[in-house]
Amino acid sequence: MEAFFITDSDFVSFLSWLEKRGDLFVATRDEENNVKIKPYSEAGEFKYPGVRAIQPLKPFFFSMLEEVAEYPVAEDRPIEAKPFTIVGASACDLRAIEALDRVFLEGEFKDPFYEAKRSKSLVISFDCTEPYETCFCVLMGVKPYPEKTFDINLSKVEGGYVVEVGSERGREAIESNKGLFKPATDRHLSQRESIRKEVEAKVEGQSKQFKPSGPWQDVLAKVFEDPGWERNVETCVECGACLFICPTCQCFLLYDEKVKDRYKRLKMWDTCAYKNFARVGGGANPRPRLVERFRHRYYHKLDYFPKTYGFEGCTGCGRCIVACPGEIDMREVLKEICKV
Amino acid sequence: MKNVYTPIEAEILEVIDETPTIKTFVVKPKEEIGFKAGQFMELTVPGLGEAPFTPSSSPSQKGRIDFTVMKVGTVTDALHDMTKGQVVGVRGPFGTEYPLDKWKGKEILIVGGGVGGAPLRALFLALVERLGDFKKILYCYGARTPADIVYKELIQKEWPRIDPSKVEIRLTVDDGDSTWKGKVGVVTTVVENIGLDVNNSVGVVCGPPIMMKFATLRLIELGYPDETIYLSMEKNMSCGIGKCGHCMLGEYMVCKDGPVLTYDLIKDKPALWD
Questions:
Q1: Taking Cα atoms as reference points, which of B37, B91, B40, B90 lies closest to residue B59?
Q2: Within this chain, do residues B222 and B244 fall inside the same structural domain, yes or no?
Q3: Which H or E element spans position B89?
């Protein structure tokens, strides 16, 4: 792929151009030094994030709550979205977008709301330089630097960024700002390379003790009945935080309500941790016990998802570990049960 | 972009009482909707929400679709209170169908129970409309009591007369009453001496989970290979398009990969019968 270089100050000019293109969201740091993706106007300035943001990018494409239909209808209203740019997607965020793209855009029926937003997005990613202790992307086949699914990728080097183009849309954005981008030099590229190696080694190092003996699917095939699931669910309070914060969790609930003389259909994030999630009208429930729902999450991410799409439905971002009030660490659970 | 979440309005033309807890709603959608036997649709009670049902009318019938609905929950309770002239919504069809073309030249064994007779009626009607394509049809149906039999007139009088050389109907009830002259026992008790060549046959099972489990085991006992046993799975199908996650059965989204699934694909899945 083609690589360019842009200086820190020219990048600010590039952001101004992006702001004219549509809504612009950038990574910034809050008072507690956490990375957050915010509207550029609120963020004040872009700061190279170095690590994934607190929030997943899922809501940009798959809203937490949105109206998806109104009835009775004469005819469908067009489903449209405004162009927008996200500056600050980590490699694990990109893997999550790849997963959601497969879920919502593949098959006989696409989700038209996801498609509308996704088709208007420009995603600018970055190489991780300061991974968290909870990061384990490498266990899920993801490197701490983007390899695909981005429009443009940034790698922090001295004085600016190495810029890589990942899509036609990314190329157009760069060509419209030709004066800002110079060809990357060998020095830039070797600097990028050594930072990448160093960061990857760090994440590999902290993940080593959790490495499975083979593909997750094979490992999980042997432990469905393991008593470890019972032991590890003890501190789960069924809050669903791990699932709502998960960048790949796709589940949603459709519900209808009456508004004056019309009816609206809403689509809201839902989680398989909740007791009646899979219950049918007649009362049968495939997963009445919490431990069964707890286990389902692991199997969906690491067994069912790969069976359908060929890669894990977990990105190793570690957000679920941070979010859990019961201090459940997915890596520890898998280590204990799979005896990795 | 077509909005797959929008229901199409459908007027209720007729409501037929089948049993004390089951009614058939004949509806006329505003747009023509085609479906294949086995596929399901989402029925909307305006303002309340949706539930999945497999139509019970023949797929070849134009302009109207029957849904046979048991009163079991919020949406079905509300449906049961609806009357002729009121409007519901329909989305679909979704999911897999019974592969009738693949079954050409075969003997078809159908085992049904309770409201599971609904999808099986659509299938049965589709089969008899091209009866020349199949060697035999044996339809075994069980209900809790004589009053719980759906489509009493059809199943007791009309269907046995279609072509007795090719089509056989066997009926049973778990508990008979003073008027009942037929068989008493769970449906598997009539799935014996089937007179079919299991090497050139397929089995179709639809009904309450416990009945489906034992009927499937019975078919295996009779020598049906797993891949010739077609199950119509009931899970919590909500979006209908394989996205919302509620109907997962192992890696399958039953709304997209099912509801018709062969036993070989799902026999090892967790909570298959729950």
A1: B37
A2: no
A3: strand B87-94
Average pLDDT over residues A54-74: 94
Q: Are residues B87 and B118 in the same domain?
A: no
Q: How many domains does chain B have?
A: 3
Cα three-residue angle A231-A232-A238, rounded to 5 degrees: 120
Optimal mutation site among A106, A111, A301, interface B, most CBs of chain B within 10 A:
A111
Query: Same domain for B35 and B60?
Result: yes
Residue B111 within any structural domain of the chain? yes
Contact between A195 and A129 (Cβ < 8 Å): yes
DSSP B245: -
Residue B254 lies in a domain: yes
The pLDDT tens digits of the residues spanning A122-172 come to 999 999 999 999 999 999 999 999 999 999 999 999 999 999 999 999 999
A194-220: pLDDT as tens digits: 999 999 999 999 999 999 999 999 999
Q: Are residues B128 and B160 in the same domain?
A: yes
In which domain, by residue range, is B260 found? Answer: 233-266
Q: How far is B103 from chain A (nearest CA, A)?
A: 24
Residue B177 burial by CB count (10 A; 0-12/13-18/19+): exposed, middle or buried? exposed
Smallest CA–CA distance, residue A164 to chain B, in Å, is: 32
Neighbours of A149 (CB within 10 A): 20
Residues B172 and B257 in one domain: no
Domain ranges (residues) in chain A: 3-205, 216-338
B2: in domain: no
Contacting residues for B188 by C-beta, under 8 A, at least 6 apart: B111, B214, B215, B218
Res. A1 pLDDT band, cuts 50 70 90? low
For residues B209 and B255, state if they share a domain.
Answer: no
Q: What is the pLDDT of residues A244-296, one digit of tens each?
A: 999 999 999 999 999 988 999 999 999 999 999 999 988 899 999 999 999 99
Considering only alpha carbons, which residue of chain A is nearest residue B42?
Answer: A254
Q: Work out how many CB contacts closer than 8 A connect A with B.
A: 133
Q: Are residues B125 and B223 in the same domain?
A: yes
* CATH code, B50: 2.40.30.10
Instruction: Give a yes or no: residue B3 inside a domain.
Output: no
Is the CB of A286 less than 8 angstroms away from the CB of B249?
yes
Instruction: Please name the residue that has the structure tokens 């089948």.
Output: B18
pLDDT in tens, B171-230: 999 999 999 999 999 999 999 999 999 999 999 999 999 999 999 999 999 999 999 999
Looking at the fold, whether B221 and B183 belong to one and the same domain comes out as yes
Percent of chain B with pLDDT over 70: 100
